[in-house]
Amino acid sequence: MSEQRIRVIVTGAGGRMGREVVRMVMDDPELMLVAAVDPTNVGIDAGKLIGTEPCGVIVSDDLELSLVESRADVMVDFTTPHTVLMNTKLAIRHGVRPVIGTTGFSPSEIEELDKLSLEKGIGGIIAPNFSIGAILMMKFAAQASKYFPDLEIIEYHGDQKLDAPSGTAVKTAELISEVRKEHRQGNPIEHETIDGSRGGYYNGFRIHSVRLPGVFAQQEVILGGFGQSLKIRHDSYDRAAYMPGVNVAVKKSMELTGIVYGFEHFID
């Protein structure tokens, strides 16, 4: 165990992902939970949020005050696309390193956050997905696209997910496009009799977003060639699957200057 524990504030602590982050931080002797922010669980002990003994950290709805009073080193954010940009800017402004699992950032917003972090002399991580399996799926798909340039991405999430396509699908598309030249696939004169039936267009291929109750998080990349097809799929069944990656990100963020976009940078 390091002599100096990393002080962590969790934003969105009352959400399903946030509770897993609280649990992960409290279970790691190298980390210390110093604040928890959530607008719907104000006044509750963070330990009670996860069904354990009280830990002395009381949930607040004031992020800025929590950042100041907690003297946090790292902020882990699993909130919503509507609030995450403001939260991240606020953390950077107070010298707290952001580790962001919330999706919905535009490239220009990530660039802006990187600039702010560099000016402040701190680093952080924005990752659409912290699951090791999901990162490998992205990497394998990018590698395969060199040989199978005709492909489509299908991602599945619950019906309450706010953004479409998912951040994981967008990141997968970006990684594929880094190694695959733009290639328009399918019949050049195809016509959608129902608008959107072919999915979203990205660099010559399509992304499809499925939103259904009872679904957690899955994604597959289907690649086709003459006489054959290849499917690369990842399925998540529990939010705890993301926590080893979040743990690594919290610790790695202490070594960074500027914003790193994508957890794949930490997977050899």
Task: Describe the protein's architecture and organization.
The chain is of the alpha/beta class and 268 residues long. It folds into 2 domains: 2-126 and 239-266, Rossmann fold (3-Layer(aba) Sandwich), CATH 3.40.50; 132-236, Dihydrodipicolinate Reductase, domain 2 (2-Layer Sandwich). Helices cover 32% and strands 24% of the residues. The chain is built from 8 helices and 11 strands. The chain has helices at 16-27, 46-49, 63-70, 84-93, 107-120, 132-145, 167-179, 243-253; strands spanning 6-11, 31-37, 74-77, 97-100, 123-126, 150-157, 200-202, 205-211, 217-225, 228-236, 258-261. Strand 3 (74-77), helix 4 (84-93) and strand 4 (97-100) form a beta-alpha-beta unit.
Oligomer: single chain
Look at the structure and name the CATH superfamily of the largest domain.
Answer: NAD(P)-binding Rossmann-like Domain
Sheet with most strands: strand arrangement: 2-1-3-4-5-11
- Mean pLDDT comes to 94
Which structural class do you get from the secondary structure elements? alpha/beta
> Could you tell me the radius of gyration in angstroms?
20 Å
Number of helices: 8
The first-level CATH class of the largest domain is given as Alpha Beta
Sheet having the most strands: 6 strands, parallel
The domain count comes to 2
What is the beta-strand fraction? 15-25%
Give the SSE order as H and E letters: EHEHHEHEHEHEHEEEEHE
Number of strands: 11
Task: Give the N-to-C terminal Cα separation.
Answer: 24 Å
Contiguous low-pLDDT stretches (5 residues minimum) are none
CATH architecture of the largest domain: 3-Layer(aba) Sandwich
Find the CATH topology of the largest domain: Rossmann fold
